[in-house]
Amino acid sequence: MIQFEVDGRQVEVPDDGASLLEVLRDRLGIHSPKDGCSPQGQCGCCTVLVDGQPRVACVTPARRVRDRTITTLDGFDPDRRARWADAFCATGASQCGFCTPGIIVRLDGLYDKKPGASDAEVERALQAHLCRCTGWRTILDAWHVVAVGTPVAHAGDRDLAAAARRAEIEGGVAQEVGPQVALGAGHFAADEAPADSLVAVPDLDGGWAVADTLAAARAQAGKVQGRRTTVSASPPLDLPAGEWAVTLRTSWVEPAYLETDASWCVPGGEPYTPLANGGAFGAKLDSVAPAAARRLADEHGVPVRVLLSREDSVRLGAKRPPIAAGLRADGSGMVRVVRTPGIAERIRSVLPDVTVEEVDVAGPPTSSDIRGAGWAEAWVLRAALADAPVRVDGIAGGWAEARIDDGVARVTVAAGDALDEVVLRSYCVGAAHMALGWVASEGLAVDDDGVVHDLTIRSFGVLRAIDTPAIEVEIDRTPGPSVNGSDAVFAAVAGAAWLAGGRVPDWPTGHTVRTTTNAANAGSDT
Predict the structure, then answer these.
(1) C-beta of residue 39 within 8 angstroms of C-beta of residue 25
(2) Most buried pick, 76, 94, 105, 455, via CB within 10 A?
(3) Cα 388 → chain centroid
(4) pLDDT tens digit string along 217-259?
(5) In terms of residue numbers, what domain contains 138?
(6) How far is it, in rounded angstroms, from Cα 35 to Cα 258?
(7) Do 384 and 504 have their domain in common?
(8) Distance of CA 306 to CAs 14, 36, 300, 373, 410, Å?
(9) Are residues 35 and 97 in the same domain?
(10) Residue 107 maps to which CATH number?
(11) Contact yes or no for 412/489 (Cβ under 8 A)
(12) Is the pTM of this model over 0.70?
């Protein structure tokens, strides 16, 4: 048996090779540490303090913490925990709230050591983490609130119901907004399942392995361990023949939502949504988890919790369809795109004079529900025929304008009644971050047989905090109905980044937008 202290109480667990994360979540019921990549140890969502030092719990064997003190976010001093939660809410530093518990634990550890840490030092501390929603800049803002005392409007001074409405407009699904979200209380499926549920994971034959525990189910399934190939991501489609003013080829990219697909169901019931407190950028709308949870619960006669590992989500989850396009100066041309229902209409809504050719390509599933799929690529091509700044008209109204100046991404967005400017800004910063990575660094290696070879979360190319430039968002306050603004920001920033990098035809271009701070941080990487 192993004894140690967790959040002020002594516990004893079997010495059976389990990870600290497994012990905390599945045996002790502590759900603030999240499983975003276990056991890759690359996303930081499961960060806890071991004798006061931040550690990633999914790669820490429980036997290594024998007689030591573990502190999760749940075990923080209530006033201190509330201080971080208020700061993250006030600055828009959490959206879905899946990655933020681990980030808060990390920042609190840094604050104990160096409360006056610079932005560069904070960014270096965040290298152990990934966040897909916020674009990092708002997390730095939250640090300033706690460490420097930067004044902000707190939750009690805001209409959080209006904030939630804005979040739903931007994310596409109902979303909760409040300090509790930053603490991981976003009602995620893996947290909400009954404690006595069976656990199901995908096996290697296209079925499901079902067992009493996650560890047992993964062992039964023969879980594929994450790997990062040495092969570079490359566009899968050839350019159409012709004389073109602009050409663009995009690669396979991973939506990279941090909460992997999960659902649970009781026999005869309705499955719990895998969307939880965020829309996953449209990538979970066709998730296999809910239907599997319902079928397996009925089959076994007990509640069943379905969990996809990071590797499962990469192999099974929907991707934005790659394109290969040539455009003439008058806006005519051809766009070749991986065959996807609805994608041709999305492209022609922006480029009505192009011919769209859908091509069958071996690879992961695709979906036109992914954020701006087809539509954003078309706007990028259209922008390449004009000069900066890049202006994009939103699908439902509103607009966004973006330019890159001196290593800063500058954005103006018009989205009607903002409802809550903190949330609108947060979504726009996050969209800008995603766009910058999409153009410059994100890609998946997929072989000729359609098999994805990049299965670790760090291999996706998502920009880290130290790689993310300053992002400035100006909100146009012209009255009007509240409409989505962040999708237009995504397309506009992608276009601006491509122009700033010289319109390199194949994405990812490798041309990142860098500031002096970014360069200094990169030089100090260890």
Answers:
(1) no
(2) 94
(3) 28
(4) 999 999 988 988 888 899 999 999 999 999 999 999 999 999 9
(5) 78-187
(6) 9
(7) yes
(8) 25, 15, 13, 28, 42
(9) no
(10) 1.10.150.120
(11) no
(12) yes
